[in-house]
Amino acid sequence: MKGEFMARKKKDDTKKVYTEPAPYNQPITETIEKNYMPYVMTVIISRAIPEIDGFKPSHRKLLYTMYKMGLMNGPRAKSSKIVGQAMTLHPHGDASIYETMVRLTRGNETLLHPFVDSKGSFGKQYSRDMAYAASRYTEAKLDPFCAELFSGIDKDAVDFVPNFDNSTTEPVLLPTTFPNILVSPNTGIAVGMASNICSFNLAEVCDGTIALLKNPNLSVDRLMNIIKAPDFSGGAFLIYDREQMKKIYETGKGSIKLRAKYKYDRENGCIDVLQIPYSTSIELIMKKLTELIKDSKVKEITDVRDEIDLSGFRLTIDVKRGTDPDALMKKLYKLTPLEDDFGCNFNVLVGGVPMQLGVLDILKHWIDFRMTCVRRELRFTLDRKKEKLHLLLGLGKILLDIDKAVKIVRETEKESEVVPHLMEGFRIDEVQAEYIAEIKLRHLNREYIINRIKEIESLKEEIAGIEEILGDELKLKAHIAEQLREIKKKYAIPRKTQLLYSEDLTDEDVPEETENYKVRVVFTRGGYFKKVTFQSLRGNDEQKLKEGDEIVYTEDAENIDDIIVFTDKCKVYKAKIADFESVKASSLGEYLAPKLNFDTDEKPIMVKVLPQDVSGHNIVFIFENGKGVRVPVSSYETKAARRRLTGAYSSASPVVGAVYETEPLDIYIEDSAGFAITVKSSLIPEKATRTASGVTVFSLKKERRVVRVESGERLENLPVGACRKIKIPALGVNVSSKTK
Predict the structure, then answer these.
(1) Whether residue 520 sits in one domain with residue 468
(2) Which of 696, 728, 710, 729 is nearest to 625 (CA)?
(3) Pairing of strands 562-567, 571-576
(4) How does pLDDT run across 396-445, given as a tens digit for each residue?
(5) Full 3-state SS string of 261-307
């Protein structure tokens, strides 16, 4: 009906012309530049990446709001009130603001030095399920440590800009008196880049910064001796690799390995995990432990419990009697997040420009930033002291004749003429005269004025001292270094994350126990591999295959056996049968290419369960050009436990087939014209070199090539006898009408 009405309306209305709007053809580059790039830059600069002061905008706005609310020294306020006030600067919803505050609290235990003194339940950094209470139930105020964030903020140390609706102003950065960028951990994901900054010990960072202030050419190695390694609020162990750590200090990118700390309770027969890596959670660890117990991969464990209480973190693992706790933990470090990696990616905004910086470069940029803040603060203080000195110098002039000053004021008829008459009577400027005119009558005595004038000398000394610091960069750096020493003295705490040196660890090659049982391995021409247990085969041994696929190899083996896989790219792979999941005969199995990390377009040509003793065993390769070669299996043995070996055979001609030979066997070879030969594998010469091109086995006519190679059970229904040859090279027999 609606469409009918619109049609009639268009037909009857002769005064209006209805036309479709012309499509706006905008190049994709212009769309990205005008529509997408502003969003990208906003996310990078104003959301996700921290500035050199160590804060994202959300952190900075929240802390400054609390500072303006008087929560630096006053009593705690309801979190909901703080969140509401913060929306004046950060209008992104109360939930996101409160979540930001939670991470900054002492109760959440995310930071080594929390910025918010909290009361109530704020969850825990090490638990994803331990939720924080609603903002109406919790209270907060600024921690005394925040005094180091706002020092000088009221003395023009940093720039201020209008907030989103121009109703007030907010600081662009906070004038932190210490390198907070390295002391507080920070994580953010922007567009096209991310930041993941770990925390370092405050005392070590202060010492490292002081050393860099004294010696701008400080080397990374020297800095590493002072700032030893990251320090996390959750403690645990850090496996220290100096070369890897040096890379992080130089480039800001790398990985740190963290390991849980535990103790064995012999009386109760359990392992108490007391600290876990900062990058994981108790829920992830318990989930993995539960899976291992369910799959019978760690039979020593009887129970796992979360025993977190008011005393702190504890994960209890009950173990069977006679279990070696150290050996079990070495196994769990490999199998669970009890040992985890923290990926470092030190992306920082410096002057609004994102940069990936190492620890040394971050400290250099922070020193430049801090020197700018201190200069501005000192200039502000210098101007105020000069103004006061100027006023006191004017006050000193009326000391010579107080009665004259009183007489001038009394005899002046108009109020507006008092200041000009004082200027003329004592030869002072307007500012000084205004100050004198505002002095209360009770202060017009010699004692008051003399006491004020005594301040002149101390003011002159203070002004000279400030000017000396401003005029000498070395003294300015010494001033910053002294502030850092005071901060270290007041707030430093012992290192929580202890170092384990990688060269001292002997548990890296702990063998994993593999359950052994009988299996049947199946390999198809399409590249699928199955491991089927004998129990699963009972009553049903019919293998399901993909349409058009066929089985080319099957063998009974044990779960602890190895397999070798030759591919068409001159490579051989070695894998354990235990690495494959057990499947039913009705399953397609696992595709080998992604499982063994094949290269693009790489395909398997042969799979074989590897016997324990391979002496006298060979691999027979038949190539497209009619040549063949036998290579001893022992040629593929290596000292190291390598998973892949290149140069497995000659690349002179594409390989068509590979046959595993334990004793002489028949090999059927067919060419592209339907001619074939059958030869004993013993006729093909053995070569010690893996990449030998071999000898001619099949004499091919021009433009023909070998297309098929079969052996073993695959010879059934093939005209093997009709084309048997007793010596090589051999001409083929036409079997095109006989081959199935």
Answers:
(1) no
(2) 696
(3) antiparallel
(4) 888 778 888 888 888 888 888 888 988 888 888 999 888 888 888 777 77
(5) EEEEECCCCEEEEEECCCCCCHHHHHHHHHHHHHCCCCCCEEEEEEC
Domain C-terminal end among 285, 315, 337? 337
For residues 68 and 162, state if they share a domain. Answer: yes
d(CA 321, CA 526): 49
Helix (H, G, I), strand (E, B) or coil at 194: strand
Q: Are residues 482 and 582 in the same domain?
A: no
Do both 70 and 169 map to the same domain? yes
Which neighbouring-strand residues pair with 557? 519
- Three-state DSSP state, 701: coil
- How many angstroms separate the CA atoms of 455 and 608, rounded? 96
- Residue 101, domain member (yes or no): yes
Number of residues in the chain:
740
Asked, as a colleague might, if the bond just before 604 is cis with ω within 30 of 0, I would say no
3-state secondary structure 410-463: HHCCCHHHHHHHHHHHHCCCHHHHHHHHCCCHHHCCHHHHHHHHHHHHHHHHHH
Query: Does 284 map to a domain?
Result: yes
Domain residue limits at 282: 261-337
Say how far apart CA 112 and CA 493 lie, in whole Å: 9
How many domains would you assign to the chain? 5
Claim to verify: residue 522 and residue 605 sit in the same structural domain: yes
Q: Does residue 229 form part of some domain?
A: no
CATH of the domain at 687: 2.120.10.90
Question: How many other C-beta atoms lie within 10 A of the C-beta of residue 369?
Answer: 21
- 137 catalytic per annotation: yes
Q: Which of 36, 39, 137, 501 is catalytic?
A: 137
| pLDDT per position as a tens digit, 347-366 | 999 998 999 999 999 999 99
Tokens standing for 199? 């925390």
Kindly provide the b/e burial profile for residues 73-92, where b requires at least 16 CB atoms within 10 angstroms of the residue's own CB.
Answer: eeebbebbebbebbebbbee
Instruction: Report d(CA 205, CA 197) in Å as an integer.
Output: 14
Q: At what angle do helices 202-214 and 473-491 cross, to 10 degrees?
A: 170
Q: In this structure, what token pair is assigned to residue 26?
A: 């905008």
Whether 220 is covered by a domain: the verdict is: no
**What is the Cα–Cα distance from 281 to 308, expressed in whole angstroms?**
12
In the three-class reduction of DSSP (H, G, I as helix; E, B as strand; rest coil), residue 237 is classed as strand
Q: What is the pTM of this model?
A: 0.68
